[in-house]
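Progress note, sequence design subtask.
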């Protein structure tokens, strides 16, 4: 089973699609093809659910472990994005999100991400992303 899309829950509204894509790239998890953000209000705070399209998974232990946890329903997979801050993640089984009025999708072309050397260090390239 090839996982092409994941959902991330409980993202604070201050985090952008670019931030999310760069987290997956910087942590050597995946190269993202798109991020769709759906805002929602919980209490007095605004959060987002991100639907993340995966262009390619990284060939790394962290990516392998995440994929294994995503496939195992008894696991609680998460992505650590900053220090001890993390997001819960699961496989996206909801399909296309075009029907959601308040959604915002950012498309990331392959050239948005570049490898800086063979030691799996990555750097964001200055490329604009398209919005849908």
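Output:
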């Amino acid at each position: 089973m090839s996982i092409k899309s994941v959902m991330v829950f409980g993202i604070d509204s201050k985090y952008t699609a670019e931030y999310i894509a760069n987290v997956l790239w910087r942590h050597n998890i995946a190269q993202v093809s798109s991020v769709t953000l759906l805002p929602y209000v919980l209490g007095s705070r605004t959060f987002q659910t991100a639907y993340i399209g995966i262009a390619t998974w990284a060939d790394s232990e962290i990516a392998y472990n995440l994929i294994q946890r995503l496939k195992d329903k008894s696991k609680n997979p998460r992505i650590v994005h900053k220090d001890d801050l993390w997001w819960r993640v699961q496989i996206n089984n909801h399909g296309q999100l075009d029907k959601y009025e308040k959604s915002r999708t950012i498309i990331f072309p392959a050239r948005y991400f570049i490898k800086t050397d063979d030691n799996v260090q990555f750097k964001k390239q200055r490329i604009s992303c398209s919005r849908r």
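The CA atoms of residues 71 and 106 lie 26 Å apart. Work on this subtask will continue into the next period as scheduled.
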